[in-house]
Design brief:
By secondary structure, this protein is α/β, with parallel strands linked by helices. It has one domain: Lipoprotein like domain (Double Stranded RNA Binding Domain). Helices cover 36% and strands 29% of the residues. Strands 1, 2, 3, 4 and 5 form a five-stranded mixed sheet that branches. Strand 3 and strand 4 form a beta hairpin. The protein is elongated and about 60 Å long.
Length: 177
C-alpha cells in the first residue's frame, strides 16, 4: 500500500514538473514572429481627417505602446526589418444619448484607421486592415451641470480613442504571432 502512495505521489510530481516547465518556454502570444522580422519602424501616421495634430498623437501612442510592451525593437525605417504604416481616415462626432427634453446629452466620437505592416526591404505585406474605435463624451450643457471631476470632455474622449486605436493596432499585429 505504501508503495502505491509513493508511486502516485511521484507521478503527480513528475506531471506537475513537466506541465509547468513545458509551458514555461512559450510566450503568452499565440504564435511566432514572422521569419526575418527582428525590428519595426513606425512611419508618421497620416492624418486624413480635419482634426489638428491627430496623426502626431497616434504616432506617439504607438511608439509608447511598442516600447512599453517590448513587442519588437524600434528602429529607423532604413535599418528596420519591418514598417508599420497607419492612416487615420475618418473621425465623427455623433449624438449618442438624449435627455428628457430631447437635448443631446452624450456624443460618440469614432475614429477609423487603416494600417499595414510590411516586411522590408521588399515591402512584402505581412498584414493590413481597417479598424474603428470610439469613446463617449458629454455635451457642454451636461458637463456644466457636473463637478469638474465628473466631466468628460471631447478632449478626454479623443485621448481615449487615440489610446484604444494604438492598442487595437498592436493587438492586430500580435494576434497572429
Amino acid at each position: 500500500m505504501e508503495y502505491n502512495v509513493k508511486k502516485i505521489c511521484l507521478h503527480v510530481i513528475l506531471f506537475c514538473l513537466l506541465f509547468f516547465t513545458g509551458c514555461g518556454i512559450y510566450s503568452v502570444r499565440p504564435g511566432t514572429i514572422p521569419p526575418g522580422i527582428k525590428s519595426i519602424a513606425i512611419e508618421d501616421v497620416v492624418n486624413e481627417t480635419a482634426e489638428f495634430n491627430l496623426g502626431q498623437h497616434v504616432t506617439a501612442a504607438l511608439i509608447n505602446r511598442i516600447l512599453s510592451e517590448n513587442i519588437l525593437p524600434l528602429a529607423e525605417p532604413e535599418a528596420a526589418h519591418s514598417i508599420l504604416r497607419v492612416s487615420l481616415t475618418r473621425i465623427t462626432d455623433d449624438p449618442y444619448t438624449f435627455d428628457e427634453t430631447e437635448t443631446v446629452k452624450e456624443y460618440k466620437l469614432t475614429l477609423t484607421a487603416r494600417y499595414e505592416w510590411l516586411a522590408l526591404p521588399d515591402n512584402r505585406e505581412l498584414m493590413k486592415g481597417t479598424l474603428s474605435q470610439w469613446s463617449v463624451y458629454y455635451s457642454d450643457s451636461y458637463n456644466n451641470q457636473l463637478s469638474p471631476s465628473d466631466q468628460i470632455t471631447r478632449e478626454d474622449a479623443l485621448q481615449d480613442v487615440v489610446e484604444k486605436t494604438s492598442q487595437d493596432i498592436l493587438e492586430k499585429l500580435t494576434s497572429d504571432w
